[in-house]
Design goal:
The structure is a homodimer.
Chain A: H1 6-16, H2 24-34, H3 42-52, H4 58-70, E1 75-77, E2 84-86, E3 92-97, E4 103-107, H5 112-122, E5 125-136, H6 138-141
Parallel strand pairs in A: 3-5
Antiparallel strand pairs in A: 1-2, 3-4
Helix pairs in contact in A: 2-3, 2-4, 3-4
The first copy, chain A, binds a DNA duplex through helix 4.
Chain lengths: ~160, ~160
DNA sequence: ATAGATGCAAACTCTTTGCAGGTCG
DNA sequence: CGACCTGCAAAGAGTTTGCATCTAT
């Protein structure tokens, strides 16, 4: 690897600070997760990584997804269909379509008041919060058409 | 079973309307889930049910948890630590302590505006929403003491 | 050189399923 | 009786781990 872009350099530094290496597998796994907003499962990431690295093992994909999540480079979320990964680390909510199962990103409102309210009622320290919406997405509401949505990209 | 209380009768009716029976196992499994707000996993429910029905099988516990969830008698939620069940079917949010892992119930605010906002931004039909809070609970903030909290009961 | 990472296969955990027998109405 | 349900054991799915080998620095 002679050329590296700025993002890769920053990532490289982040990992190095923890004694971790930016291997080809790790880089491609991260690229795959970042290239979609479909909140992929480990199995899906594996399938896509294999297109570029046919000899990669599923264990490597799992290990790296966990490692990258531990480093905060991506996030992990439990879902009825299994653990899903998300390369979008900006604060955002999710909308799950009960018809097709797709998970859409919804920009989070800057809602400090919500946390404050819970904190004052419970006496707990609220560090974070996330809202999950459930309903029917545009594509599923009117059979045959998509709708202007939240900014989804690929499948 | 000669005596049944009102709740049991109502449940019985709900199940019968679907061709389901209120067997001893099913009833006790439900009682166990309802007797705690610890959002138990199937394994924990199994352990507790076995105290009252030593010959119950884990398969029966799984089958009934799924059945009861399908009937809306209890709810199911995905969690990093596995699927958890909740006998509290009233609308409520959750607070997960990042230190001890406990999940506390938080009364949901009647927030129709939140749904409306997402609906208008996305064009989606929002049927439901739930917020997950993360932070440090009272017990974990000050080592050695519990705190006045949201209404938790047993462990 | 050496700590870290990989590929492979085996192991593990959690959950579901097939089936023969039991139970409820 | 017939439909539903149970216990048991086996199967499945998803994920993790041990280990010899390889690779990045």
């Amino acid at each position: 690897m002679i050329t590296k872009n700025v993002a890769a350099l920053a990532l490289d530094a982040t990992l190095h600070a923890r004694g971790l290496r930016l291997t080809r597998q790790r880089r491609i796994i991260l690229e795959v997760v970042r290239a979609t907003d479909a909140h992929p499962t480990a199995a899906l990431v594996y399938r896509r990584v294999r297109r570029r690295l046919p000899r990669v093992s599923l264990a490597t994909v799992y290990r790296n997804l966990r490692t990258l999540a531990a480093e905060g480079v991506l996030t992990e979320r439990a879902d009825p269909s299994g653990v899903r990964f998300d390369g979008n680390t900006a604060s955002h909510d999710h909308f799950t379509c009960v018809a097709c199962g797709r998970i859409y990103d919804v920009p989070a409102r800057a809602d400090r008041a919500v946390r404050a309210r819970v904190a004052s009622r419970t006496g707990f320290e609220v560090l974070n919060h996330r809202t999950e919406f459930y309903g029917r997405c545009g594509a599923c509401r009117r059979p045959g058409g998509r709708s202007p949505v939240t900014g989804q990209r690929r499948k």
